[in-house]
């Protein structure tokens, strides 16, 4: 603070501090707090707001436990509330997206950081970046076209003789109704996985890889014992980013999802936008945020990653 | 167990640049062999070819008589100590040391025991559970040696491992390395640009310049009988005289130049080449009167006291610089600056040498 004052004088320092305070208080804390407060109040006609029916309760939160229906998890039949099921599906498939991104990004990041000719790196990075210049909405619609029943992907697979019948990627897919969402989310967010890992591996001394190899280590052990431990902070921050982005994605599931594949943010959106029930929407948002944070912390514990590693 | 290494007509190109040119050397099992040369001379490339990180463009590398072409570094019986050591910072010391055993599927208890033994061998007991960052430079050095020894290599390759240490520690580690080599009997190939290091530790030294091995000989021979001007200049100081060389008889020849006529030895295979005369400062003596032969007058310009000896610098005619080392024995008279004296040398101590062996 003293340093800031000495360097920029009272006027500028005060401006900086006020701007930061405005950003944190008005743009971050206040809206979240407003939502938090709203989430405990019932959804009422305007005349009743502030009246005797307007009191704090957990009613909005308990709504997630309504509407039980018969379903199955990994083939085991269970009865559970429909929103809980949707919620679990979202977390599960977001984790799956994260896993696919990791599996795709790690080898590519290693290739870029350690194998590719340094002269070709700018070109390769540019090629990777170009799709990011197109808005996510357009990319989602492009995938909608690719994945449609009479679309290029089915035509290609049929042409190559891999399949006889077209696959309904967006309704049934091969594995689950979420195939299309998982494919497109993986495509959209794989770069968020690539760059942290790329940065982490770049900082690894190549001599360590050679030293491991020289000591007789096969390639997979070198990765397991030397490269992955070193790049763990990058892997962790990539995973957190991809998981939070894909779990919170609204656009992609809206475009390529179907009635059989609902994403939890769509439910929240419906409460806010269609039902105009901001209170329940706020409650659902809070649940979603807290559980996702909890999930991330759990995963970090499991893989022994510290928060300070990610911030690096 | 140790193995010999044979380099047979080994060449290595990087694009159009030839880093190693036709290297031929046969290193005996259990030998301490050094490659000595300035940076960029190709010595590290040779080491990387032996360890398997680079394949030679031409020629063969044999370890224990077996051609290593196509054998990956992790399949070769070599262990490399990197210039920056390349210890694994995220593993404790004992895991670093036993990594090579872990790779070979040795169980944890045995690995731990072996690591402790090796730590004792390199005089670092009790460090097993420390992390790399907790050790000093010299200790890290020892860990790197222990890690390489753990895999019981037949050949140990060392890439200027002492260059990051301070002088005292470097001298200590020299002796230590030599002792470890003697104790284990493993073949050592040592890469350095420090002539003192190479001469003090090695059984034999290969001096390199511009991708070519200039000379392979015992340290003493390298210093006393260099085969060319590059070797003579790289290992030690010289006074160099140019001129025309007369006929050779009995391995001696006369060189006539602007500073007079000098007699010196000529090596048999140096005949017929352009030669210069090289004589070491410590083989040059000063006198007030002109000696019978190989004597040149000079004016003393600088007298530098070095402790064990006194370095006298002077100018002969035409600005020719001459350096003489006078022993600080309390008997030999040391001239003062401005004095005119004669520098002379024994013909048997002076050599007529060609320039470096380079391509072209």
List the helices and strands and how they pair.
The complex is a heterodimer of chains A (312) and B (360).
Chain A: H1 2-38, H2 59-62, E1 68-73, E2 76-81, H3 82-115, H4 121-129, H5 136-147, H6 152-159, H7 179-202, H8 206-214, H9 219-247, H10 251-256, H11 264-274, H12 278-302, H13 307-311
Antiparallel strand pairs in A: 1-2
Helix pairs in contact in A: 3-7, 3-9, 7-9, 8-9, 11-12
Chain B: E1 5-14, E2 17-27, E3 32-36, H1 43-51, E4 58-63, E5 66-67, E6 78-81, H2 93-103, H3 108-121, H4 137-150, E7 155-159, H5 167-184, E8 187-192, H6 195-201, E9 204-209, E10 212-217, H7 219-224, H8 229-234, E11 239-241, E12 244-245, E13 252-257, E14 260-266, E15 276-279, E16 284-287, E17 295-305, E18 309-315, E19 321-327, E20 340-345, E21 351-353
Parallel strand pairs in B: 3-8, 3-9, 6-7, 7-8, 14-21
Antiparallel strand pairs in B: 1-2, 1-4, 4-5, 9-10, 11-15, 12-13, 13-14, 15-21, 16-20, 17-18, 17-20, 18-19
Helix pairs in contact in B: 2-3, 2-4, 3-4
């Amino acid at each position: 603070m003293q340093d800031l004052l000495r360097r920029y004088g009272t006027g500028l320092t005060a401006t900086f501090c006020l701007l930061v305070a405005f950003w944190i208080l008005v743009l971050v804390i206040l809206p979240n707090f407003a939502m938090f407060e709203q989430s405990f109040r019932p959804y009422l006609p305007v005349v009743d707001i502030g009246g005797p029916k307007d009191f704090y309760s957990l009613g909005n939160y308990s709504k997630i436990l309504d509407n039980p229906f018969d379903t199955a998890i990994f083939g085991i039949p269970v009865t559970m509330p429909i929103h809980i099921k949707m919620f679990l599906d979202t977390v599960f498939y977001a984790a799956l997206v994260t896993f696919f991104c990791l599996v795709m990004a790690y080898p590519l990041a290693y290739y870029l950081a350690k194998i590719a000719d340094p002269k070709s790196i700018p070109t390769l990075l540019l090629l990777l970046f170009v799709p990011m210049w197109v808005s996510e909405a357009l990319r989602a619609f492009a995938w909608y076209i690719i994945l449609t029943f009479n679309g290029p992907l089915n035509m290609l697979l049929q042409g190559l003789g891999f399949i006889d019948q077209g696959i309904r990627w967006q309704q049934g897919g091969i594995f689950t109704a979420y195939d299309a969402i998982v494919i497109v989310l993986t495509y959209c967010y794989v770069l968020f996985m690539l760059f942290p890992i790329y940065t982490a591996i770049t900082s690894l001394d190549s001599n360590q890889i050679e030293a491991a190899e020289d000591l007789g280590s096969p390639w997979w052990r070198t990765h397991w014992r030397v490269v992955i431990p070193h790049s763990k902070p990058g892997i962790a921050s990539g995973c957190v980013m991809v998981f939070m982005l894909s779990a919170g994605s609204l656009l992609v599931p809206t475009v390529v999802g179907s009635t059989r594949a609902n994403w939890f943010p769509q439910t929240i959106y419906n409460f806010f936008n269609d039902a105009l029930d901001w209170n329940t929407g706020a409650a659902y948002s809070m649940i979603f945020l807290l559980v996702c944070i909890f999930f991330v912390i759990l995963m970090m514990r499991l893989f022994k990653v510290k928060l300070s590693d990610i911030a690096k | 167990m140790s193995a010999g290494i044979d380099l047979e007509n080994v060449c290595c190109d990087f694009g159009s640049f030839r880093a190693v040119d036709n290297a031929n050397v046969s290193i005996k099992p259990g030998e301490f062999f050094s490659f000595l040369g300035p940076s960029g001379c190709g010595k590290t490339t040779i080491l990387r070819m032996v360890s398997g990180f680079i394949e030679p463009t031409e020629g063969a590398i044999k370890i224990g008589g077996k051609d290593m072409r196509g054998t990956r570094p992790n399949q070769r019986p070599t262990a490399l100590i990197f210039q920056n050591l390349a210890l694994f910072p995220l593993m404790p010391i004992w895991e670093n040391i036993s990594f090579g055993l872990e790779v070979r599927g040795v169980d944890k208890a045995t690995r731990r025991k072996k690591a402790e033994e090796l730590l004792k061998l390199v005089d670092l007991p009790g460090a097993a559970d420390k992390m790399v960052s907790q050790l000093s430079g010299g200790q890290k050095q020892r860990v790197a040696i222990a890690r390489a020894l753990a895999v019981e290599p037949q050949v140990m390759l060392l890439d200027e491992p002492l260059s990051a240490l301070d002088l005292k520690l470097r001298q200590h580690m020299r002796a230590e390395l030599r002792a470890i080599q003697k104790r284990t009997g493993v073949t050592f190939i040592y890469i350095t640009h420090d002539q003192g290091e190479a001469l003090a530790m090695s059984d034999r030294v290969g001096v390199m310049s511009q991708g070519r091995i200039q000379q392979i000989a015992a340290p003493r021979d390298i210093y006393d009988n260099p085969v060319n001007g590059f070797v003579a200049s790289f290992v030690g100081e010289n006074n160099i005289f140019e001129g025309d060389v007369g006929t050779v008889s009995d391995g001696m020849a006369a060189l006539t130049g602007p500073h007079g006529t000098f007699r010196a030895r000529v090596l048999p295979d140096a005949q017929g080449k352009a030669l210069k005369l090289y004589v070491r400062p410590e083989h040059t003596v000063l006198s007030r009167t002109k000696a019978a032969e190989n004597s040149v007058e000079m004016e003393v310009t600088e007298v530098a006291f070095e402790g064990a000896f006194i370095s006298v610098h002077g100018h002969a005619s035409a600005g020719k610089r001459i350096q003489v080392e006078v022993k600080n024995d309390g008997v030999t008279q040391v001239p003062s600056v401005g004095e005119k004296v004669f520098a002379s040398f024994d013909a048997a101590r002076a050599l007529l040498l060609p320039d470096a062996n380079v391509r072209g």
